[in-house]
Design goal:
With 270 residues, the protein is an alpha/beta fold. The protein has a single domain, classed as Alpha-Beta Barrel (TIM Barrel), CATH 3.20.20.150. The chain has 10 helices and 8 strands. Strands 1-2-3-4-5-6-7-8 form an 8-stranded parallel barrel, surrounded by 6 helices. α1 (18-28) packs across α10 (253-269), α4 (78-97) runs parallel beside α5 and α5 crosses α6 (149-159). The radius of gyration is 17 Å and the shape is globular. The termini are close together.
């Protein structure tokens, strides 16, 4: 039996207000929720407080494995980089207030300077150490570079930090043209969280994007092998349902969350 715990990424019910996202995740049976900083900021702009969100999470018995996301830090320079770092600090402070051990740091969309990115990732981790949250560098299958596990590992190793981590995601492994077997190159300590979804047969891999992800078990990715490899490297933390489908956003979020959890359990527990 798997020791993995089930988490809901708020992207799956993206159009639902943040306090209802938290309620839905708990009532549907998840043990955790990944929260987005954009949703947090909307709540704060409307007069809410971070302490309200933290109380809701705690009252519903949920963990917050990550917050999403930190951007524009990888290869910007000069004043643009300083502005990006200031925003990253602000978001990391939010992560800390919500009890999140990690915050997801996204890669650039185009070609990437790995040496500069590694230096900046090191600096981002240093800021994270100050506030008590570890930025985790995500690879994305649809960007020009930094789209495989190997790419993420290269930057992590170049950073020289023992606390460097990445995010695993079946969609990004497939979309980036990598192999699920590359999971074996990681240690469990290098995985901040594992997202979970499936990949469709159409459109072709090279043009798929976030909106094309499907529920676990509804696609063709070898999710059984994915779970096996997570177990082999010793990862036993959260498996987080992450979809970006407008058809799901238009449905009752509770229904979506319940169906998603059932499909995750079917894949993982058989």
């Amino acid at each position: 039996m798997s020791n993995l715990k089930y988490c809901l990424n708020a992207s799956t019910i993206m159009t639902t207000p943040i306090m209802l996202q938290i309620e839905v995740a708990a009532k549907a049976g998840y043990e955790a929720i990944e929260l987005w900083h954009d949703h947090i900021d909307v709540y704060l702009r409307d007069g809410g407080e971070l302490s309200d969100i933290r109380k809701a999470v705690d009252d519903h018995g949920l963990a917050v494995p990550t917050t999403i996301y930190l951007g524009d830090w990888f290869d910007t320079t000069g004043a643009e980089y300083e502005r990006a770092l200031d925003e990253c600090r602000r978001r990391l402070d939010q992560s800390a207030a919500l009890g999140a051990p990690h915050a997801i740091a996204g890669p650039p969309g185009g070609t990437a300077d790995y040496e500069l990115g590694a230096q900046h990732y090191r600096e981002l981790l240093e800021i994270g150490t100050e506030v008590g949250v570890k930025p985790s560098m995500e690879f994305l299958g649809f960007v020009d570079q930094l789209n495989t596990i190997e790419d993420a590992l290269e930057v992590m190793e170049k950073s020289g930090r023992d606390d460097a981590t990445t995010i695993l995601d079946p969609f990004h492994i497939f979309r980036g043209g990598g192999s699920v077997e590359s999971i074996a190159k990681l240690t469990q300590a290098q995985i901040a969280v594992s997202h979970f979804n499936d990949t469709p047969t159409e459109p072709p891999r090279e043009v798929q994007h976030d909106k094309d992800r499907v529920m676990p078990g509804d696609g063709h990715f070898d999710l059984k092998r994915y779970i096996e490899l997570l177990g082999q490297v010793g990862y036993n933390r959260f498996l987080s349902l992450e979809l970006f489908r407008e058809d799901l956003w238009a449905r009752d979020p509770m229904e979506v969350a319940i169906v998603g959890l059932d499909k995750m359990r079917t894949v993982v527990e058989g």
